[in-house]
Amino acid sequence: MSDPFSDLMAFQRETEALSQVAGRLSWDQETVMPRGAAAQRSDEMAAIEGVLHARRTDPRVGEWLAAIDGAALDPAGQANLRHIRRSYDRTMKVPAKLAAALARLTSVAQGVWAEARANDDFAAFAPTLREVLALKREEGAALADGGNVYDALLDDYEPGATAESLEAMFGALRPRLVALRDKVRGRPAPAALSGQFDEAAQMKLARHIARTFGYDMSRGRVDKAVHPFSSGSGNDVRITTRTAAEDPFNCLYSTIHEVGHASYEQNIDAAHLLTPVGAGVSMGVHESQSRIYENQLGRSRAFCGYLFGQMRETFGDIGIADAEAFYGAVNRVHGGFIRTEADEVQYNLHVLLRFDLERALIARDLEVDDLEAAWNDRFEADFGYKVDRASNGVLQDVHWSVGLFGYFPTYTLGNVYAGCLHAALRAARPELDAELSSGDLAGATEWLRAHVQVHGGLYEPRALIERATGRAPDEGPLLDYLEEKFTAIYG
Amino acid sequence: MSDPFSDLMAFQRETEALSQVAGRLSWDQETVMPRGAAAQRSDEMAAIEGVLHARRTDPRVGEWLAAIDGAALDPAGQANLRHIRRSYDRTMKVPAKLAAALARLTSVAQGVWAEARANDDFAAFAPTLREVLALKREEGAALADGGNVYDALLDDYEPGATAESLEAMFGALRPRLVALRDKVRGRPAPAALSGQFDEAAQMKLARHIARTFGYDMSRGRVDKAVHPFSSGSGNDVRITTRTAAEDPFNCLYSTIHEVGHASYEQNIDAAHLLTPVGAGVSMGVHESQSRIYENQLGRSRAFCGYLFGQMRETFGDIGIADAEAFYGAVNRVHGGFIRTEADEVQYNLHVLLRFDLERALIARDLEVDDLEAAWNDRFEADFGYKVDRASNGVLQDVHWSVGLFGYFPTYTLGNVYAGCLHAALRAARPELDAELSSGDLAGATEWLRAHVQVHGGLYEPRALIERATGRAPDEGPLLDYLEEKFTAIYG
């Protein structure tokens, strides 16, 4: 005898397992795949994606969902049901023809974008972006059912979030961030790290730091790739980082960032393995983990003291006299155009710009032809200097080319959540700085594990943060933290 | 408008792509997978295998096959149709319940075998082997449709081969091989290589030798694993090898062997990519490529001269005075119990033993309880000394535990085919030794590419070898080659 919930979950576990297989294939592609295998790999990836799509739209899922009595389930069962229902409803709302057209177009569009970026030529990308935007507007309208189109897209990455609530939060962030940037800009900057640092030694130190932050190497691994990323769930969660001889901070802080993502996946209650609850609950909460590991913990004065010692042990004299100067070098606020290279003060300004522009694009308040000018104007207003070329401006991110409208705000939402969690962690753990200064992350990562990570997808994102911190999340703690930290450094 | 052959081939291409995905997952498991991921990986592998099984038994395949007019197809189309039909017919003949029971049992049996081998305890494995054998007899009977049960199993690995034809061939091999072994045993053996050889340097030399044999590194890669293997088809064909400080020949000749397998897959006409014709046609032909690369080419006097220079360049003085002594060390006939470590003279005696025993098991002429004694008696008769323990005897190979009855004879068939191909290659290429002695494999591998590898599964195995050599394959050339070579070395 079978019951519909058990049948649904058995089917879903296989789907999750196949989705992990697709993830392993992506990891392979970015790390170890022979370069001549690229075209064949597209066929392999398309085949597994086709299998996943067929399972996600399998009519049996609809029948099981209709037959299940949700009230009779335990909390994990109810949460799994909620995730499966949300995903199934979304999938069924998008006409198959539109979904296929989007998949086809975005796989081509990424290549067009990459070439346009290499040539600093937005006009070469514009026609393709127009097509992507048209299909995403169509998809958003299908999902929104008469409601807000942007919210419908955003919901894919941050269930429950709305543009309106984010506008209020981001609206409060922007003036204080711009003011902080202005204040910092007027003061003498700490000296930057300079010199050449052996790349193999960087990787060795990165692996040590990854372990220090609690990353379980027996269920993961660290490799080099063009872009740092974290991949997989449960007991096989791998990260990548990159190295450049002149910039060991890139390698080390990319590693810590990805360890935040990976630890979240590794630390979810094993009972939820290969179910929807057994994965990070949203992009925003995921980013909260990567950012609190990277910034509030990894770039703290206390941890920088420990890292300074590790750097000198690894590389000898690094041309920086003491831990305080090292802390300044790590947290140096610097010019530049690229979001992924931005410091803590300016990072969210990059995101807010994209959030406003992509809402305008989706709402038809802005057209693709005017996008580059709108980007450049806004950049100058927030950063105080002009974009010098398209690859440093509107062409820098891959997201829009692959249809990720509604994704950008989750970066800043993650920072806001990280701010809230950091305040709660400090309150719960007065000994935190003493621990960090000796490279002991066990207390901090255990607090995050127990309050956030272990739950996986059991609670909705905002409810999870509220449960962990005891209060509804808002931008206050992040702003207070940034102002206090950077006023002290640039005092 | 669609036609049934196009529909079938489109479906089949996706199946082949998914089968490659499963292969990538196996590669990952043996090379880079974190050790803590093993249990989760079983679920992932089971999910992709489930998808493949569903596709192989999809009733649409039967409908397409019934609707296709094979006579209207080109030769590649006819060959693909033949492969798909054979595979579908075989799959449909085996009851789903039996197939599932076999899959379940063999995945457990491998673990039981490994533990029994570690404890040298055949009795601990016997009950499980009895179960595997019972199911394989049942499967063979279902496949044989009243015909020969062993032939039906053999057909999975070597289409068209029969036990009767192999008995004749192997019956001619055995006395001459035993006589050669006796003769060699009575003469003084060349000195063995001894010393310690840096393992990273072994890998570097192995990669160089792989390239020398024509392996395309832009569509493959060489890694270390517990067992050497080749994995994948077309433009992503990876090999593994292993290293031991005291035995660089293991690393180098495992590499050359796997390069033979991998080159076969890499060199198939790209028009057949991701179709049944786009893969090696049988285990026997596959082994013919690995063995001719490894033995007739790689262990030739001429190539050993080149390798001697490479070894000295890599490791300095290796304690062997000249190329002739090095050739002797490479081809030293030695005692031992293990098939995979056997020299060219004795290797096929190991296989013949297994072939006779497994036919007796399938035919119920031998029962599992008597297997160990039968093994030990036969070993002493052919090799002249007694098996000292089960892990050196009946428990040494994984094959039977995972149900591979009918697989062993393809190893010797591969050697026989390699003998035929080698004779034809020598006749076509009088300059071969001059080339080999300078490390120039281009002519030899091009001949094998053009006469064997490029065709993939276009021709049936025996027809392919006959086409390449101009005569029906038989054991004569292999025996002549072995007697001439080892009489000279041990002269």
TrEMBL record, chains A, B:
GO terms for molecular function: metal ion binding; metallocarboxypeptidase activity. Binds 1 zinc ion per subunit. The keyword Zinc applies. Keywords: Carboxypeptidase, Hydrolase, Metal-binding, Metalloprotease, Protease, Zinc. It is an enzyme of class 3 (hydrolase). It comes from the Bacteria. Its cofactor is Zn(2+). Its EC number is 3.4.17.19. The active site is at E258. The keyword Oxidoreductase does not apply. It catalyses: Release of a C-terminal amino acid with broad specificity, except for -Pro. Broad specificity carboxypetidase that releases amino acids sequentially from the C-terminus, including neutral, aromatic, polar and basic residues. Belongs to the peptidase M32 family. This is Metal-dependent carboxypeptidase. It comes from Roseivivax lentus.
